[in-house]
Amino acid sequence: MKAYIFNIPDVVLLMTAAECLLLCVFQLVLPLRERTYGLLLTAFLLIIAMASACTLILWNDQFELPHVIEQLLLPYFLFAGLMLKGPAIYLYVSALTQQNLRLQWRHALHLLPALVLMLCIAIFSLSSNDLRHIAIAGQGFPSKIVDLIWDLSTLVPLIYAAAAAWLARRYSGDLKHEYSHFSTTELSWLNALTLGVLASWGWTMLVHVVAKFSSGETADHLGIADNYITFILINAFFAYSLTYAHQLLVTKPERNRETAEDEPSESAIDRVRKAMEVEKAYLKKNLNLEQFSARVELPAKEVSAVINKHFGTNFFEFVNSYRVEEAKALLADANNTDMTILDILLQSGFNSKSAFHRFFSRLVGMSPTEYRKQVQQGGAAAAAH
């Protein structure tokens, strides 16, 4: 009877590595307007491909590679892949959510954890057999070193995944400080993907811990699920990059977004209030903080300080609250009975039906249709008296 070279988990690892390489080629030829996040996604896919291929070679005894490659070089490539996937995903999310992010020398600091692990492997001359056998036998001083290396290779990516998820969550708040309107679809998918990575690498950590205290068979079953999750995630990330990534609004770096420390001046407050109440700047669709600051002839930091400290809100809530008041006035005007709700929201400065209904219902306590009916009934009752 013929022996099988690959079982199903091995096939999944092989498919993951092969598809990552294929997606890298496709990613590099895409005519992206912003190349930084595309290059970082390519790096992430290459790293996942390397980690998957090395994992397959390490645990599948059917491979016959030259001794130098299999025993001496494989540990370096394996742990380089495992340690670099965290920084790659973190920088990818950073490039998606920050304005004009460019890779600089300071970003090289993210390589340090991988370099430390490479140094440990070199100092203790660890081979592939050490990684296999000591991980199974678990005894003696070399075993403690190998355990530490495996521990770090699961912990460090998990920390970076948590940081990437936090970046995506903070991005929502950043948008509210700079924009009066933004689509939530791309943001929701980004949050889902980063949380998916966090859950996946959290599962990897769980598998690693369970392997220490349970049978190898249990750990194998959990590890198989981990391989499937990774395969699904790399497809999801590529689909997101292709479909939604280019639609995300960029935000300024945090150091350029800080508000002024001093209390805003009365002059600045009057300018902001006049622009909203007299000039009705909120009627401009897709108004952002930079455009509004130019209109009132004040630095963005000072305008942000006025909105945050004096009005006690962010730019997103500030502008849309005025739009809701404009919509209420239009709905209450008896001369506008022939205007549809769509006409009302567009004339109020909104350009999204869902955003209009969400804001109106939250601030007024009822839907626009209910509000119109209520004020019309009130007007009719007053006329009757």
Written description of the protein model:
- The chain is mainly alpha-helical.
- The protein has helices spanning 8-29, 35-59, 67-97, 112-123, 128-137, 140-178, 184-213, 216-243, 266-277, 289-296, 300-310, 315-332, 341-347, 353-364, 368-384.
- Helix 3 runs parallel beside helix 6 (140-178) and helix 4 packs antiparallel against helix 6 (140-178).
- The relative contact order is 0.08.
- Mean pLDDT is 83; it is low at 1-5.
Q: Share of helix among residues?
A: over 70%
Mean pLDDT: 83
Order of helices and strands: HHHHHHHHHHHHHHH
Q: Which of globular, elongated, flat, extended, rod-shaped describes the shape? A: elongated
Structural class: mainly alpha
CA-CA gap between termini: 98 Å
Determine the strand fraction and express it as a percent band.
under 5%
Unreliable runs: 1-5
- Computed Rg: 28 Å
Q: Could you give the count of β-strands? A: 0
Specify the biggest β-sheet: none
List descriptors:
single chain; 385 residues; 15 helices
Describe the secondary structure blueprint for this structure.
Blueprint: H1 8-29, H2 35-59, H3 67-97, H4 112-123, H5 128-137, H6 140-178, H7 184-213, H8 216-243, H9 266-277, H10 289-296, H11 300-310, H12 315-332, H13 341-347, H14 353-364, H15 368-384
Helix pairs in contact: 1-2, 1-8, 2-3, 2-8, 3-4, 3-6, 4-6, 5-6, 6-7, 7-8, 12-13, 12-15
